[in-house]
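Human:
Class, as today's exercise, you are to examine the entry below, and be ready to discuss the fold:
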Amino acid sequence: MKFSIDRSDLLRALSHVHTIVERRNTIPILANVLLRAEDGILFLNTTDMDLEIAESVPASVERAGATTVPANTLYDIVRKLPDGSSVSMDIPEGDNKMLVKAGRSDFRLGCLPVDDFPQMSRDGDLPHQFEIPASQLRTLIDRTRFAISTEETRYYLNGIFMHATESKGQKVLRAVATDAHRLARFEIPLPDGAENMTSGVIIPRKAVGEIRKLIEEAGDTIKISLSDTKMQCSFDHITLTTKLIDGTFPDYERVIPKNNDKVLEINPAIFAGAVDRVSTIATEKSRAVKMALNGKMMTLSATSPESGSATEELEIVFDADPVEIGFNAAYLMDVAKQIEGDGCRMTLADSASPTIIQDVGDDNALYVLMPMRV
C-alpha cells in the first residue's frame, strides 16, 4: 500500500472521522482508522461499535491496499504538518509499520490487521430511505437537542425521538427530546419517503452531535436510510451510520398541558438577558429564579444564603390574575435562545403546573418546562 495526498484533504477527512474514537480504548482496533487506497481514492473509516463514520478523498495511489493505524495519533501528526505539504504513506512489502512522510518529517506507525476492524454498515440492510434538506435537519436538531437527557439510567431519553405524524391536518416529521424537567418539540413538513417512520426512532446523543457537525459541510440534501436498529446519513463523500436506541420513548403528548389559560408575551432576547443577570445570585445547585406576574409587569428574583438577592422588572403583556412561579434559570435561557422572532409566548396554569413556551411567529416549535419550588 502506497499513496500520497494533500495535507489539507487528509486533515479535513481525519477531523471528521477521528472524533468518535476514544482516546482511551480497551479494544485496540477501535482506536484505529481503517485506510483503504484504490483507484485514486483514499477511504477512511472509524467506529466505536455504536457509531461509524466513513469518508472518501482523492489521493494519488501508487500501490493499492488497506491497513489500520492509530486514528488520533495520525490526526495529531497531520494537524502539526505545515500547510500546503504533501503527505506520503507507505507500507513496504512484508512490514507491519506504516511510513508517514512529509517534507523532512518521518513517522512509523504500528498497524493492526484489517480483518479485525468491525464493520457496522452493510448494503441492503437499511430498507427505508428518504432525503431531507440539510437546513431542515439542522433546525430539527438545534431546536431539540438541548433537552436530551444525560441520565444514563433512563437510556431511552438519551437521544432525539423522530417520527412521522399529523399536525393540524398536515403530515410532518417531528423531533422530540426531554429530560423529564423540560421538553422540546419541533416539526417540519414530512419528506417524501419518510411515511414509514410512524413508530419512530431514537437517535443517540453522540450520533446527534456528530450529525450536527457534519451538516455544516454538507450539500443541500442529506440522504437518510433506516432499519429498525440502525440509521445512516449520507453527506456528499461522508457516510455516518449509527445504532438506534433500543427502547420505547414515553408518550410525550401526556406531558403537554391542555388547559393552561394564562398567557404571557415577552421579547425573548430581553427576557433571556434579565434571567441571566438575576441568576448570577441564584444558588449554584438549583439555579432557581422566581417569576412574579402582576398586570403589565414581571418581577424576576433570585436569592442565595451565600450571595444575597437580585430582582429585575420587565414589561410584559399579561391580562390574567397574578401568579408566581419558579424555574431553573438555565432551562429558561436554553428555551429563550430557540425563539428566533421578537415574541415569546408562555402559557401557564398555576405555580405547580408545567408551562408551555412557544415562538409567536413559529407554530412548528413547542417547549414545556416543569416549575420549581422557590
The chain has a mean pLDDT of 93. DSSP finds six helices and 26 strands in the chain.
